[in-house]
Amino acid sequence: MSVDAQAVSALPRATVVAWRNAVFAVFAINGVALATWMSRVPAVRDSLGATTAEMGWIVFAIAAGSIVGLTSASHLLAWAGSRRTIAGSVIVGAAGLAIVGLGASAAGHGALVVLGLALLGGGMGMCDVAMNVEGAAAERALGRTVMPLFHAAFSGGTIAGAGLGALAEWGDLSTAAHFGAVAVLSMVAVVLSVRFLHLDALGAATASSDEPHLGWRDRLGLWTDRGTLLIGLIVLGMAFAEGSANDWLALAMVDGHSVDNSTGAVIYGVFVTAMTVGRIGGVFVLDRFGRVPVLRATTALAVAGLLIVIFVPSAAVATVGVVLWGLGASLGFPVGMSAAADDSRTATARVSVVATIGYFAFLVGPPVLGFLGDAVGLLRALLLVLALVALAGLASPAARERS
């Protein structure tokens, strides 16, 4: 996938701004969809009468779908283009969300829930790669760093989706009605948004006149490319740092620092807030200092924060560590996506590889930490996260901007 620099520079400012805003919308739509499901997991479990172990197998469907979507995205983008891939993947994911709602509302239809989750995961996986490729191209068109802001929009979408889920739960709204409404709104929003995406219009979704088209063997070959894998290591470590907090931070504070459940939830909120602030403020820091110094600094912050959380017994001081952890983990994933897309000829395939590695951490990390936590306690289990973050810091030169 390549973008003609002259064609980009010739775009009117209003067109580029509309393009940027459309990418914001796509990221937010994905966030809303994910949080819609996550906010109603207890309701789905109660409706199905499933045990915790059974829910683990049911939820595995979204992980399996995500892996299929992530690994097939580069091939789909090469064949269908960015607009159709983004629109199609959101529609597939939204349909899956609606099916989950129907299956949960009709007690005993666990198979429908599994099918819906697989579609939701597949759609989100494909969209994740496509929207990051589109976002990287929009970033180049703008001439300044915006990828962290796109990921902040995803975070904003999850906050909105969680809020809507809480309202739906409070109002005793069925999952069929709730998920169905969000699905329809997502479909409408993406159809309205993709009109303003310009990667395809610049000739980047297919082979350009001056660059060869990447075949499927070339795309698979990037899995052995040293530079791509080092960027993947950065994303792996930082995704693990983010995902482990999402799943285990509240419980680690409750079990390891003896806070109550509500305080644990508040401390997790502190982490999410620090992540969001880091992504919003990160655009200015990245433009001023560049990727490598910023990645080194943020990984150092995350390591310091994790050390405090793991080893300092005071809950108040550990909360300061959580802030450092959140700030430190905020930029690794979006910077990795930008770095993977630096070479426009291979941007789609490289983003697919790096995103798959990152989501592997999101999907596999939580159960690994759970097993480790059973053996040594959750706080000590976080030493694995610390080690991966340190490795990400060592790999940070791989994200250096191309001249």
Automatic annotation (TrEMBL):
As for membrane topology, the entry says:
Multi-pass membrane protein
What is the recorded name of this protein?
Answer: Cyanate permease
| Keyword hit for Ligase | no
Q: Where is the Major facilitator superfamily (MFS) profile domain?
A: 14-403
Domain of life of the native organism: Bacteria
Q: Does the keyword Iron-sulfur apply?
A: no
**Location(s), subcellular:** Cell membrane
PANTHER family given for it? BYPASS OF STOP CODON PROTEIN 6 (PTHR23514), INNER MEMBRANE PROTEIN YBJJ (PTHR23514:SF13)
Chain segments annotated as transmembrane: 21-38, 58-79, 86-106, 112-133, 145-164, 176-197, 227-245, 265-286, 298-316, 322-341, 353-372, 378-399
| One term under GO cellular component | plasma membrane
Q: Which UniProt keywords apply?
A: Membrane, Transmembrane, Transmembrane helix
